[in-house]
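Dear Dr. L.,

I hope this message finds you well. Following up on our conversation about the binding site, I have prepared a predicted three-dimensional model of the protein together with LMY7XDAE. For your records, I am including the exact sequence and ligand specification that went into the calculation, followed by the structure tokens. Please feel free to forward this to your student if that is useful.
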Amino acid sequence: MAFLIDGKQISQQVIEDTAAEVAEFQITYGIKPGLAVVLVGEDPASQVYVRNKVKRAEEVGLNSIEHRLAATCSQQALNKLVDELNTDPMVHGILVQLPLPAHLNEAEIISAISPEKDVDGFHPLNVGALACGEASLVPCTPLGCIIMLKTVYEDLSGKNAVVIGRSNIVGKPMAALLLQENCTVTMVHSRTKNIEAVCSQADIVVAAIGRPEFVSAGWIKPGATVIDVGINAIERDGRRRLVGDVDFTSVEPIAAAITPVPGGVGPMTIACLMKNTLTAARSQVLARELEREAG
Ligand SMILES: Nc1nc2c(c(=O)[nH]1)N[C@@H](CN(C=O)c1ccc(C(=O)N[C@@H](CCC(=O)O)C(=O)O)cc1)CN2
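The resulting structure of the complex is given below.
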């Protein structure tokens, strides 16, 4: 039986650590870090995620600001709101919940967010910094995966890691972070030949392909660690269920450690958003101090 990597428990620890650091930050600088969350439209899942983000932000002691725009809002109106948040000194982190309604340009809005307030780590400048191995605001889901992996391994150096999926939000930043940890990283995707054979060599498999229960027992080396990023709603036995990209029932007896769905990577995403907001507030305060000193 594999060791279950408990995302609920680890994320709670991240939340508690961040809350303590936020309190210390406030004492030191007299500033409450602010997180602005923008929701466009009424997608039911997005509403739940935004509600949870606001709740968690309040829990860690952030100044939580929520903006809701109608599904019909124009690109111009969304750009204007982001511009206002970019210049608001009370706001240190900005997050626009994705996906956006189809008529809005996601790439344009991500690029409009000030890179220093981009707590999602999706801005091209933050993506570039991560690729160069520089300190930056890192996408929350891959950051959460690394924190989970570090509860399993003292050192990730030299591990063979395979990332399944090449999205900008998870697959690509995940590979960059594993590389920073000195893993030997292979990315596989829908066009990869012999994907199963490649995965079966891995010490660490991160599945982020968005296909329910796609990864099965034959893909996994005995004793490997499996991180399942997928959250797929399916119907089974007449009931709606959430499953990952990994067939948990067949993989769990083979792996040494595995994340469940739900209760695995998902809660880490929101906890890491809180951590990133504090990181953003710290570097903004530091940058202002340096500007002041330089005259
Ligand atoms: N701007 C962003 N948009 C989106 C992101 C993101 O990181 N930034 N990620 C996802 C959605 N997401 C956060 O926004 C998210 C998804 C899932 C969970 C989570 O805790 N899931 C639970 C199950 C929830 C359920 O019961 O439905 C779990 O896995 O245990 C948190 C956050 C897309 N958009």
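In brief: The mean pLDDT is 97.

With kind regards,
A. P.
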